[in-house]
């Protein structure tokens, strides 16, 4: 993944880093024309043309603005799902290690879709609206794979006639930063003071000529307070986005800052930290396996392997850890070596960037035991040279999640 240093010094390098689908015909979110009007630099990302930066507002400025004010991210390229039916909970608990039955209505959880070997097909946010109704958001880059996987699993599910899965499009906005609540409150009659992190509800949006209510979750991918609002009505979504842009504390934020913000917050990116061969335990995400599901009767995909890893920590030979350093930023794919024996590779960087909020480089990596312990000095190969770095605690910033005043 791209470092902020290269963002600041070389916009061409930035565009190439995101241009993984340059030869494909790109999709556009409902906000594409608004991004162009706002001076966005558009790049291919996950099959979509997406804003990476906006004219006159650098990556560093975008990052710091979100930490201090309110940044708005177009995440309409993410895939939204409905999973409903009397066996919906049972079906989801086959795909995921989370105990969704234990969630309250309108509570959500980060989870993972698991293949039969315990590998992660994708990470996801699953919101329980009722015992028979769930809303899920998955990654844009895994769109086709996720649909095929879920539908294939449903076809094999014994209670398939009692479960319905579909997806839908629309405007999906992430409104992030310490001023997010003040901003969103201006547009709704619903109080947000009792909507805590990890919960959601449907709210009105006043001034847009509709009586519809829209799903809002107290959530985000930056480590800050914030909301994700789903607006299937594209016309209302565009109007709401434009109204947000008129607020003095709000600026549109692109992919460059989204990546450095999530890195400082210690959050994973599918395809970097997580993949089909990585279990939640490999990824230091043990907490995703609900304690109520850690038993011999567990039926989620890959349960035998995952529960064996939990019971036998020594069976996991490498762990996802945080890395800090000075100098050139570590990047995806950089090799990691032991200080005691610089010829011995002990790991690899999965994501790396300069951290504008902390003033030093932050990265994530998979490192072999026992070199994964906090405080361990390591060497990272960057531009043909071995450079010093340290295994560090994540997240790298203090989270600003809202849990009540």
Automatic annotation (TrEMBL):
It is an enzyme of class 2 (transferase). One of its GO terms (cellular component) is mitochondrion. InterPro entries: GcvT, GcvT/YgfZ/DmdA, GcvT/YgfZ_C, GcvT_C, GCVT_N, TrmE/GcvT-like. Pfam families: GCV_T, GCV_T_C. The keyword Mitochondrion applies. This is Aminomethyltransferase. Its EC number is 2.1.2.10.
């Amino acid at each position: 993944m791209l470092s902020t240093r290269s963002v600041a010094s070389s916009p061409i390098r930035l565009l190439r880093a995101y241009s993984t689908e340059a030869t494909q015909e790109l999709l556009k979110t409902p906000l594409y024309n608004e991004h162009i009007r706002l001076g966005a630099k558009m790049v291919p990302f996950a099959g979509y043309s997406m804003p990476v930066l906006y004219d006159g507002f650098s990556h560093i400025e975008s990052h710091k603005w979100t930490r201090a004010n309110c940044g708005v991210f177009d995440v309409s390229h993410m895939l939204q799902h409905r999973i409903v039916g009397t066996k919906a909970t049972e079906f989801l608990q086959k795909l995921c290690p989370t105990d969704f039955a234990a969630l309250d209505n309108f509570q959500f959880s980060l989870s993972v879709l698991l293949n039969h070997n315990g590998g992660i097909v994708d990470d996801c946010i699953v919101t329980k609206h009722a015992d028979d109704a769930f809303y899920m958001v998955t990654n844009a880059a895994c769109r086709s794979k996720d649909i095929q996987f879920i539908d294939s699993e449903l076809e094999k599910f014994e209670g398939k006639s009692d479960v319905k899965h579909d997806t839908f499009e629309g405007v999906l906005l992430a409104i992030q930063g310490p001023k997010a609540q003040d901003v969103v409150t201006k547009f709704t009659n619903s109080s947000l003071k009792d909507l805590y992190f990890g919960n959601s509800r449907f709210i009105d949006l006043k001034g847009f000529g509709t009586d519809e209510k829209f799903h809002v979750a107290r959530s985000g991918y930056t480590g800050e307070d914030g909301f994700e609002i789903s607006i299937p009505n594209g016309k209302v979504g565009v109007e709401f986005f434009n109204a947000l842009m008129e607020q003095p504390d709000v600026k549109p934020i692109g992919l460059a800052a989204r990546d450095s913000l999530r890195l400082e917050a210690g959050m994973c990116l599918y395809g970097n930290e997580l993949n089909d061969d990585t279990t939640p335990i490999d990824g230091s995400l043990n907490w995703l396996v609900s304690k109520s599901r850690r038993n011999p009767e567990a039926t989620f995909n890959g349960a035998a392997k995952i529960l064996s890893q939990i019971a036998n920590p020594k069976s996991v030979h490498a762990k996802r850890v945080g890395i800090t350093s000075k100098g050139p930023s570590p990047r995806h794919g950089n090799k990691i070596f032991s200080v005691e024996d610089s010829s011995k590779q002990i790991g690899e960087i999965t994501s790396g960037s300069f951290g504008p909020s902390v003033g030093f480089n932050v990265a994530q990596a998979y490192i072999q035991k026992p070199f994964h312990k906090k405080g361990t000095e390591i060497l990272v190969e960057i531009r043909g040279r071995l450079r010093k770095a340290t295994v560090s605690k994540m997240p790298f910033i203090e989270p600003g999640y809202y849990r009540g005043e």
